[in-house]
């Protein structure tokens, strides 16, 4: 990869929980820690709110990488949202290669509101990894109508399969 490619901004989506990681990113900004500018942050109430399909659809629709960050285990403001998130996201990591997506394009972590320096480190390392991988291969994005049709076709097939009569 040329030096020019390394400099080029890639599309990285970050899902950050409102109470910890978004605060951590804010702390890093207020402290003026230098960070890569590739990340586009989506603030969610809790990492437990993140449906793994958000990540899959982001990656299928042109994101080069997706980073999820929430409160540290036992610090979730909804008690156990990040435990649910951890279970789902760990499954997603194993599932991504089946879909043809390089699992290195996805990462999840925990950053608290006071950890501006940790946030800087996490975002810098993840961005470096995505730059090493380069732009994601192009997937022909599926439209909303096509998603709905696929769901209907699947339901129709399920109704007439051997195991469902
Ligand atoms: Fe941050 Fe639940 S509120 S992970």
CATH architecture: 3-Layer(aba) Sandwich
For the biggest sheet, the summary is: 4 strands, parallel
From the 3D structure, determine the CATH topology: Rossmann fold
Shape: globular
Radius of gyration, taken over Cα atoms and rounded to an integer in Å = 18 Å
Parts with pLDDT < 50 across at least 5 consecutive residues: 160-165
How much strand? Answer: 5-15%
Structure ligands: FE2/S2 (inorganic) cluster
Number of strands: 4
Average pLDDT for all residues: 89
Number of domains: 1
Give the topology.
Elements: H1 3-7, E1 12-17, H2 21-30, E2 39-44, H3 52-60, E3 65-70, H4 81-99, E4 106-110, H5 116-133, H6 144-159
Parallel strand pairs: 1-2, 1-3, 3-4
Could you characterize what this model shows?
With 165 residues, the chain is an alpha/beta fold. The protein has a single domain (9-140), classed as 3-Layer(aba) Sandwich (Rossmann fold), CATH 3.40.50. 47% of the residues lie in helices and 14% in strands. The chain has helices at residues 3-7, 21-30, 52-60, 81-99, 116-133, 144-159; strands spanning 12-17, 39-44, 65-70, 106-110. A 4-stranded parallel beta sheet has the order 2-1-3-4, sandwiched between helices. Helix 2 (21-30) packs across helix 5. The radius of gyration is 18 Å and the shape is globular.
Question: What labels would you give this structure?
Answer:
165 residues, alpha/beta, Rossmann fold, 6 helices, globular, disordered C terminus, binds FE2/S2 (inorganic) cluster
């Amino acid at each position: 990869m040329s030096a020019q490619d390394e400099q080029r901004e890639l599309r990285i989506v970050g899902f950050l929980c409102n109470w910890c990681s978004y605060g951590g990113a804010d702390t890093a900004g207020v402290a003026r820690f230098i960070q890569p500018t590739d990340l586009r942050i989506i603030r969610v109430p809790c990492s437990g709110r993140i449906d793994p399909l958000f990540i899959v659809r982001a990656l299928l629709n042109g994101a080069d990488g997706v980073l999820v960050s929430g409160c540290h285990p036992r610090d979730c403001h909804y008690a156990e949202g990040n435990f649910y998130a951890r279970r789902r996201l760990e499954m997603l990591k194993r599932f991504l290669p089946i879909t043809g997506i390089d699992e290195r394009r996805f990462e999840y972590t925990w950053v608290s509101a006071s950890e501006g320096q940790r946030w800087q480190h996490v975002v810098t390392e993840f961005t470096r990894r995505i730059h090493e991988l380069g732009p994601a291969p192009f997937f022909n994005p599926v439209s909303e109508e096509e998603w709905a049709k696929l769901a209907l076709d699947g339901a129709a097939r399920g109704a007439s399969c051997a195991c469902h009569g």
